[in-house]
Amino acid sequence: MPSQDYLIGLRGIFTVQSFLFVFLQTFTPTAVADSKNTTGPLYQTILRKSLSVLCWNESFIYSFIILLSARTLCLPFLTEPNRTVCSSSIFRRGIRLWIPTFVAFSLSVAAFSTTSTQYIDDFLEVTGNISTMTPKRMRNFLVYFNSFFDIFWLTKWYGSQAANQVFPSGTLWIVSVIFQQSYTVYMTMVIVPYTRASWRVKALTIFIVTAFWVQSWAWYSVTGLLLADAVCNMNLQHKSRAGARVGKFRVPMWPLYTVFILAGGLLQFLFIAWRPEHRNTELQGHTGLYTDASLNTKVDVDEPQARDDNYLVIIGIMLLVETYNSIQKVLRSRILVEMGRRSFSVFLVQPLVIYTAGIKLYMHMYASGANHEIATFACFVVCLSLTLVAAEVFYRSVDIPSVVIAREAWKWVKA
Description:
The protein is mainly α.
């Protein structure tokens, strides 16, 4: 089947957005959507109510990554549906995620549990940042071991897990969700070669609606699987470009996809920029699976949440991407694809750079009398440069070897 490198290129875009989120959440938190810093300089408030909604919005970025992960994860089996490919993917997944996460998590513990973090406390006090926190310190090896173990064990309360609070920026929860949802995809994708396409669409749609009702991330991941199935086995691109038949006419599909994007984007702009007090009201429209027998009135908004507005924007964008070659051609650009290949490395390295070199540089410049904007700009340049270098080193020394080790381990087990 044709190359699907455009999906890697799409991931590259969110790699850039992820860096912007972590940096801005640290240095200019008022400019970030859903920030606890609701007041601040006017330019930051304007950025929060405009560009931040779709450009460095944490929930949007990582929701898209979860769906995109499911969209790509099942491709080997869908293109070659046999038991060897299926078992190989399932076996290698844990090793592939475990090794880079172990190295980055260990570096974080070494950086923030063996040395003083007073400089971060001072930074947060000086900048008035209440949207992030100083990484927690590990008391002993047992706490370290259990925290790391739980990353690949938890099925709920991802944001409050110890590992996420030890890791700077509090974004390590995404690894837990992606790992858990990988096996939702694996267990579901095995039906593909043995069922009719029309039945699968109906069954997976019911699955998605049910997952939505119980507020499970499977709502996103199974949507990614259904998209992959439609592309690989149902000729989605041709049917989407041909449009839907209504009587004697064919109605193009792109207006519908655009409506999805506009509707989701409008919901985000309305409740981030206009009525933020109702931002999380939509989260109550699910059953309280772990908290109550009725609706989700006791939802913990500090936990990562699968949101309706994000879903609408993401599904609209994905359908446009899957439909038009021109969009795919742009996403296949070398710089986006190469960035997408390094996305996991960038994700794991960027908080370490920002919370060590970035914050220390800021405090040095602050002590020298530099104003906030100049110090922040200098930190941005330095952090971006160091992140690119550190991520490249991590990619070549840890990320790629983890893929090789996973493959070799599979060969050894199979032999």
